Amino acid sequence: MLDTHKINEISNKIKEVMSTSPLADVEKNLNALLKGAFTKMELVTREEFEVQAEVLRHTREKLEALEARLAELEGK
């Protein structure tokens, strides 16, 4: 059976190497690059999209009602 002390020691060494290696910087830079790209693309969340779609649907309904009312008044 493996010694848990040795496993913890190896794990700690790996964490130490990872934190001092350029790999950590690469990950941070990649995250910043992706966030910048997504911001430039002006992406929205699904929730924001659904809210705006509902607002648009409601606005279209009002427009259709107003057009029908205008047609009724023009017909008189």
TrEMBL record:
GO molecular function per UniProt: isomerase activity
Localization per record: Cytoplasm
Gene Ontology CC, one term: cytoplasm
Coiled coil stretches, renumbered: 46-76
UniProt-listed GO biological process terms: ubiquinone biosynthetic process
Native organism: Methylotenera oryzisoli
Family classification: Belongs to the UbiK family.
Function: Required for efficient ubiquinone (coenzyme Q) biosynthesis. UbiK is probably an accessory factor of Ubi enzymes and facilitates ubiquinone biosynthesis by acting as an assembly factor, a targeting factor, or both.
UniProt keyword terms in alphabetical order: Coiled coil, Cytoplasm, Isomerase, Ubiquinone biosynthesis
Protein name, UniProt field: Ubiquinone biosynthesis accessory factor UbiK
Record bears the keyword Cytoplasm: yes
Protein's pathway: Cofactor biosynthesis; ubiquinone biosynthesis
